[in-house]
Amino acid sequence: MKAVYINSVGSVSAQKTFNNEDFLEEIVTYNDTTIRVIEPDYKAYITPAAARRMAKGIKMSTVSAKTAMEEAGVENIDAIIVGTGLGCIGDSEKFVSAIIDNKEQFLTPTRFIQSSHNTVSGQIALGVGCKGYNFTYVHSAISFESSLLDALMQIRNKEATNILVGGVDELVDHHVDTHRLIDHIKHKPVDSSQLLQSNSKGCVMAEGAHFFVLSGQKQSSTYGELVAITTYNTLSKSVLSEKVSQFLGQNGLTPEELDLAIFGNNGDIDFDSYYELLGKGIFKNTPQAYYKHLSGEFDTASGFGFWLAAKILKSQTVPTAVKLNQLEVSRPKTILLYNQYRGENHSLVLLRRC
């Protein structure tokens, strides 16, 4: 089976990740119920005139995508695949508000055009001159994984060589207010370094953009190999360990042979038990890590986890800030990412050093 390599990464997040030379050397902590990204200097990537017309999600994605393409050393790509839970929801909100305020009259189409979910992939394609396959997945908390799976299949079927894959979501007030109302966001501020000790319902909601160049060709910038992906819409706790073991077995591994398990704990007392079940069960003797205390929670937050795993494989170090237990791993070769959101949309992603 043809190998699929992660040749570059690009990240705009709540941490200082947009510079690929650093790897969580300086951790930014928060004490809030929502956190926003640390914005890079957009002028270095986008002309001011163009930036004024762009939604925040588009600007974050443009920086992240350009960073990934520059590191991979590619000017042209065969396809662009983006995952997003909400798309450019900020412009959607503004367009609907304008309809109400103007009583459905004298509306300009700009906000409507920029509010569609595939605006991000379209803008990136225009910027880099890509006329190839362009697709956006809107699959809630597995939107990013759906994009990865599409790219994985295309490269293995030799339909493409270099594919830009990413996940992006932005934070807007109306969305936050809605989720706070239904108890999906914590009611009281939480110290991000103590997220798992918050003992409360809900998550700390955030935003971010993470892009990667996947390729069928290995090169000097390669981080690792994307081995396999699987997703489940629903998965009960009673069969979770069995499904994870089955997934590893299909890829020639046992739970004991895994070097690192990265979990998507978000501090929600009602649903972090999924991770605890694995952490105290089949992975009790496996080094474990987590990341949503750094990135926050959003539909494509698993993109930050994928970025983290790729950086760990390349640097061969696990930052202290992400360690979930005290077990050490000196030279990680295989990493499993497991994520779910409120008991649904489970994903398993396996990466390997190459």
UniProtKB/TrEMBL annotation:
Which one of the record's GO molecular function terms can you name? Answer: 3-oxoacyl-[acyl-carrier-protein] synthase activity
InterPro entries noted in UniProt: Beta-ketoacyl_synthase, Ketoacyl_synth_N, Thiolase-like
User: Where, if anywhere, are coiled coils annotated?
Assistant: none
Question: Which residue intervals define the domain Beta-ketoacyl synthase-like N-terminal in the entry?
Answer: 46-216
Keyword Lipoprotein part of the UniProt annotation: no
Going by the entry's taxonomy, the superkingdom of the source organism is recorded as Bacteria
Keyword annotations: Transferase
- Give any single GO term for biological process: fatty acid biosynthetic process
Protein name per Swiss-Prot or TrEMBL: 3-oxoacyl-ACP synthase
Q: Which organism is it from?
A: Pelagihabitans pacificus
Q: What is the lineage of its organism?
A: Bacteria, Pseudomonadati, Bacteroidota, Flavobacteriia, Flavobacteriales
